[in-house]
From TrEMBL:
One of two assembly initiator proteins, it binds directly to the 5'-end of the 23S rRNA, where it nucleates assembly of the 50S subunit. Keywords: Ribonucleoprotein, Ribosomal protein, RNA-binding, rRNA-binding. This is Large ribosomal subunit protein uL24. It comes from the Bacteria. InterPro entries: KOW, Rib_uL2_dom2, Ribosomal_uL24, Ribosomal_uL24_C, Ribosomal_uL24_CS, Ribosomal_uL24_KOW, Translation_prot_SH3-like_sf.
Length: 107
């Protein structure tokens, strides 16, 4: 998967189209990423008690994972943030390096 934890991405389709956020968690087996502030859903949690005796539960708003094909990596070009695809190249030692296709820079 070409998107990693900590990358700045932009949603390119869906209800949150145009929103940008940082990748919190990447799920490569499911081809999904969790982006902060994107795809917020409400979960109803069952009421219970904590060890101190306070009540918990109610409606909680959290982020849900989005498919990696619905986000694009964001890089800086001439002071502007632009979306780009990701490619790879190998350096002299044989290490694999991610490259922004639009700018040609290493990520």
């Amino acid at each position: 998967m070409k998107i990693k934890k900590g990358d700045l991405v932009q949603v390119i389709t869906g209800k949150d189209k145009g929103k940008q956020g940082k990748v919190i968690v990447a799920y490569p087996r499911e081809d999904r990423v969790l982006v902060e502030g994107v795809n917020r859903v409400k979960k109803h949690t069952k009421a219970g008690q904590t060890a101190r005796g306070s009540k918990t539960g109610g409606i909680v708003t959290t982020e849900a994972p989005v498919h990696v094909s619905n986000v694009a990596l964001v890089v800086e070009k001439d002071g502007k943030k632009v979306t780009t695809r990701v490619g790879y190249r190998f350096d002299d030692e044989g290490n694999k390096i991610r490259v922004a296709k639009r700018t040609g820079e290493d990520i």
